[in-house]
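Our preliminary data section would be incomplete without showing what the modeling component actually yields. Below, a chain of 434 amino acids is followed by its predicted structure, encoded as tokens that our downstream tools consume directly.
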Amino acid sequence: MKPRLAVFLSVMMLLAVMFSSVGVSPSLAQEGEFDWRRYEGTTLRVLWPNTAWTDFILEELPAFEELTGIDVNMETFVEDQLRQKLTVELIAGSDDIDIFGSMTIQEGFKYHQAGWYTTLDDLINDPTLTNPDFDFEDFSDGAISLATVNGDLIGIPTYSDAQIMIYRPSILEAAGLEVPTTFEETEAVAAALNDPDNDFYGWINRGKGAAATSVFSSVLYGMGGAWTVDGQPAINTPEAIAAFDWWGRMLREYGPPGAVNNSWPENVQLFTSGKGALWTESGQAAATILDPEQSGVADDVSFAVVPGGKPYAYGWVMSIPPNAPNREAAWYFIQWATSKENSLKAKLLGIPAPRTSSWEDPAFTENDPHPDLTAAMRESLQLAMPYMNPHIVNVQPWRDVVGQVIVDAIEGKDIVASANAAQAQLEELLKQEQ
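Predicted structure:
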């Protein structure tokens, strides 16, 4: 299988480092006390999203099957298709799913309320089922917070990503400008660099309704707002109004034409073709931007914490449903897939790691071609709050309602009236959850 990874590291160099410094699972294969072949002959069914980490782990699967004697059937889907399939099967009480991928900031409360997660504490604490080298404490606090819903650990993180600011250092330097850290500084820099006559824009970001709510969340929280307060929507507070106003003004005055139609794909194209100075997006964007085969600015890009210092974090976790037919064997696979060794291998391929050791291993630190990205990502993960979406069950309808306020703000409409209308809709939405 040819991986689709758009890696931002020098692949040939890093693969050489990976296999010389990490090896091909010798530490696991030579375990004397832990019986990796306890569930030999088992077949696991795994439902998983298409991500860069997916490509990585699929390439590594033969090593797991050789180590354990367990076969793995990994069915992969785009995110929405995965959620649709899981919803259909889990509502029907399916008893043939062993592991599934979950992004808790999107569906965590819905799945938890429906009883679709198994809490993992008893598995982690069972010395007969958990490899002593697993080292649960090695996972960062931020990563574990993304795998925890209502106080229950419902999965193990496969990777942890955070929102960062992406910028063109040569453009700022030529204009004598510093990297902005506040909202006021960011607007001043965007205004100074904006040059629409030459198809260059000071600020690129999402404006496409619901798709914009995730990146907008850092501005909402950075300005002192919140999705909810005391269990009620907080979309029309002065802080939220200020956030909508800033977001709308930035894209209306310093962004590209048609910003209300732009989400991730459009902004990647704009930035990699050299049409933007500043952009805030998930760290996964770095892989494409730093790939010279996909980016025209690969040699002129750097990274920083988002303005206001309140980025979001997210990531996929491996969860086990209550009706899993092979619960213990599934736990074996999760341990292996998220081991220190595999976390480091994935990190060397540019996939943000949930384990602290992966960021600190000499195999990475001594060959890190983008220390600015590493510094920005590590600080962002430390600062990040898992608040990309509100902690409610009906996340998507909420995003649709708030997305309309974002569009109205970009189009210069009455933000207060739009936010008040959204507040009323969201109050009714939350009543359905009570």
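Residues 1-31 have pLDDT under 50 and may be disordered. Residues 52-68 form the longest helix (17 residues). Preliminary results of this kind motivate Aim 1 of the renewal.
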